């Protein structure tokens, strides 16, 4: 019998808190673990996601870092601004989060959209970033097939948030399609059923519009301007971009380290938390 996977089981025995910050006037939900005197680590989820993307990583990272996983602007239970969201909006909100938690400098790690935001933040605010991790990060290309797939799955899940539509959105992220991911589906279904979330998702999907995406993409000039030590972490089965794209991103960032996780899709931090935690923590600690 397959073992049931539960968000609560992942967090059992973990000393953590859940709450809300006022980040520049934006009510921002967070999960936090670790002594607040430790160096700060901020974790950013992907498009349409939420802080639970990191439930399997809080305990290991809390040994070394004051670890914050947030619902990004317009996502999860964080305030919805009511306009199309571009990368600068996410970065402005992120910097407000840094200020709200009293962090002059942070280690910053982002997956998918979170990686895109993290990279842009490292370009625009180099004085605030110690180390940077780009985990199956977006923002380097515009693949019409992938963009259309993200829109189709995401809008179907919020317009009619049945178990099947939300499960399809979650399963697409994963390499292992045999699992049901029930607890993740239930958590995201509740988020997507919030009043007004259809409009919120349309605002999130703005970056899948070719014209909007084009003015937000990062290229050699932007990646080349990153001064923080950087890890580009990719996977063998990422549905958004192949391994070559991950290597290309790493090649544009001075001194970047590249790591490949085999047998994972777009959520390596969840699918193979043990390997992810080891690679991630070793890099963040400079090992």
TrEMBL record:
Cellular compartments per GO CC: membrane
InterPro entries (UniProt xref): AB_hydrolase_1 (IPR000073), AB_hydrolase_fold (IPR029058), AB_hydrolase_sf (IPR050266)
Entry keyword set: Hydrolase
GO MF terms held by the record: hydrolase activity
Entry keyword annotation includes Protease: no
UniProt xrefs under Pfam families: Abhydrolase_1 (PF00561)
Name used for this protein in its record: 2-hydroxy-6-ketonona-2,4-dienedioic acid hydrolase
Organism: Mycobacterium heckeshornense
């Amino acid at each position: 019998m397959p073992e049931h996977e539960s968000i609560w089981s992942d967090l059992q025995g973990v000393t953590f808190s859940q709450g809300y910050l006022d980040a520049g006037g934006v009510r921002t939900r967070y999960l936090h673990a670790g002594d607040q005197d430790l160096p700060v680590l901020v974790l950013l989820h992907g498009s349409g996601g939420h802080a639970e993307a990191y439930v399997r990583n809080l305990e290991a990272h809390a040994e070394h870092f004051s670890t914050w996983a947030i619902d990004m602007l317009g996502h999860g239970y964080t305030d919805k601004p009511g306009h199309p969201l571009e990368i600068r909006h996410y970065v402005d909100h992120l910097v407000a989060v840094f200020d709200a938690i009293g962090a002059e400098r942070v280690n910053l790690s982002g997956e998918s959209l979170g990686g895109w935001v993290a990279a842009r933040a490292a370009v625009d605010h180099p004085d605030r970033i110690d180390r940077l991790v780009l985990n199956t990060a977006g923002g380097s290309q515009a693949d019409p097939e992938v963009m259309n797939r993200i829109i189709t799955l995401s809008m179907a899940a919020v317009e009619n948030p049945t178990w099947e539509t939300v499960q399809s959105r979650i399963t697409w992220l994963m390499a292992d399609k045999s699992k049901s991911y029930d607890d993740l589906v239930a958590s995201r279904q509740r988020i997507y059923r919030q009043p007004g979330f259809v409009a919120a998702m349309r605002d999130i999907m703005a970056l899948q519009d070719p014209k909007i995406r084009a003015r937000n993409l990062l290229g050699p000039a932007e990646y080349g301007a990153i001064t923080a030590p950087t890890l580009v972490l990719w996977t063998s089965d990422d549905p958004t971009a192949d391994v070559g794209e991950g290597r290309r991103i790493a090649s544009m960032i001075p001194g970047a380290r590249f790591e490949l996780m085999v047998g994972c899709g777009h959520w390596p931090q969840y699918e193979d938390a043990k390997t992810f935690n080891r690679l991630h923590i070793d890099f963040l600690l400079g090992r």
